Amino acid sequence: MKKTLFDKLWDMHVVKTFDNGPSVFYIDRHYIHEVTSPQAFKGLEDKGLEVFRPNQIIATADHNVPTLNQELPIKDPLSATQVSMLTDNCNKHGIKYYPLGSEYQGIVHVIGPELGFTLPGMTIVCGDSHTSTHGAFGCIAFGIGTSQVEQVLASQCLLLSKPKRMRIKVDGKLKQGVLSKDVILHIIAKLGTGGATGYFVEYAGTTFEAMSMEERMTVCNMSIEMGARGGLIAPDQTTFDYIASTLYGPKGAELEDKVKHWSSLKTDSDAVFDKEIHIEAATIEPMITYGTNPGMGINIFDQIPSDSQDNELAKSLNYMGLKPGESLLGKSVDYVFIGSCTNSRIEDLRIAAEYVKGKQKAADVTCWIVPGSKLVEKQAIAEGLDKIFQEAGIKMRQPGCSACLAMNDDKIPEGKLCISTSNRNFEGRQGQGARTILASPLTAIAAAVHGKIWTADAAIERNQSKIESQSR
């Protein structure tokens, strides 16, 4: 029987299936952080249970940590307590832990791949929605709740029902100034926030094949935002070369042996999906969101939709301080955030540095650039990216989830508009009353320079007539 990539991975990890019921599903890699793990460890303790396989767990502090002065004691009591509990739990159970101060600390979905702990064919979970990031390596990777974190700690398994399968194919070459973040925002806007509910999505086609691993991670990261359980991309030579460059990934003969197996992890010709979607890359322009969920996205040169019967749209626009039919191009911004598990890797920082080099940040814009890990920070400094940012009036901060969510010190003030490379624009996501517009690193840094929503010159030139018609 012909199988999809997802089918192959699923079948490899099913321990037992109950008649007309769920399957016992084995988990290869478990990532944990300071926010969703304390309750799970407490549950184990209350039941008198031990961590079943601690060597398959990787921990780091990322969500609720400061991104300035990390060498000093954490001031915020809640953050300090969470980090302290994670440290104690990892020490007690013999779990590999990268705390603040470690040369490998960072956002969990950044350090896992870059250190070589995420490998093709794995099943991966974490108490975080954006675990789908790791699907870029040809993995079944998805977020779980705290009770499920406890289950995996205790048994290395979960009870799961098999999702349906969807394939999204994008073919062709992307236009200049269009990044992988624009691709996934385009897809989410097309499908809506519930368009992939109940599915696990495989991304296929020449556009994804041409992407780097970092670009693929950006795409898979946001699979959850259209309701999917997760997203994945078949491993190929790009994947294998990336793994060969990691610190702890397999090397030499071991890598060659694994590549033989990994090369078989692709969808068979004529395998059947429950749903298929095809998009031409040439139809995609730089994207931005205008509402309060990631599905409310438009081409940066288009106007906000008008629908007097749509109460959700009206509520969202009221929160955002926007109007139906309005063009966002040229709208003033207050904050720019380049970071998060979606767009905080070295390629994202290089894109921002290339654009801002020789320019100055707009005086009335606050810009936070936050590397996703200490390794990304180290590489950025080695390449002089931090100096480029500094000369433009921007200080690069230290690794952490930062302004992706209003959990740490990096909050957007009430009523302020932030162009963000993160993954969610819900009400209050970046701070109480904060207004968030999602965009690519290129669109974000352009906003920081111009002080308004703008984008790369090539995209502007392509749409000059549309811009002129809007201004008349």
Please outline what is shown here.
This protein has 472 residues and is α/β, with parallel strands linked by helices.
Model description:
A five-stranded parallel β-sheet has the order 5-4-3-6-7, with helices on both faces. It has a four-stranded parallel β-sheet with strand order 11-10-9-12. Strands 16-15-17-18 form a four-stranded parallel β-sheet, covered by helices on one side. 52% of the residues are buried. The protein has helices at 5-13, 38-47, 77-93, 108-115, 146-155, 180-191, 206-209, 213-221, 237-244, 252-262, 311-320, 346-356, 374-382, 385-391, 441-450, 457-462, 464-471; strands spanning 14-17, 23-26, 29-32, 57-60, 96-98, 123-126, 140-143, 157-160, 164-171, 199-204, 230-232, 275-280, 287-289, 297-299, 335-338, 366-369, 417-420, 435-438. It contains 17 helices and 18 strands. The termini are far apart. It is globular and about 65 Å long. Helix 6 links the parallel strand 9 and strand 10. The chain is of the alpha/beta class and 472 residues long. It has two domains: 5-277, Aconitase, domain 3; 287-471, 2-Layer Sandwich (Aconitase, domain 3).
Major sheet summary line:
5 strands, parallel
Task: Estimate what percentage of residues fall within beta strands.
Answer: 15-25%
CATH class annotation of the largest domain: Alpha Beta
* Number of DSSP helical runs: 17
How is the CATH topology of the largest domain named?
Answer: Aconitase, domain 3
Tell me the overall shape: globular
Structural domains: how many:
2
The number of E-state strands comes to: 18
Helix percent reads 25-40%
Structural class: alpha/beta
Q: What do the pLDDT scores average to?
A: 96
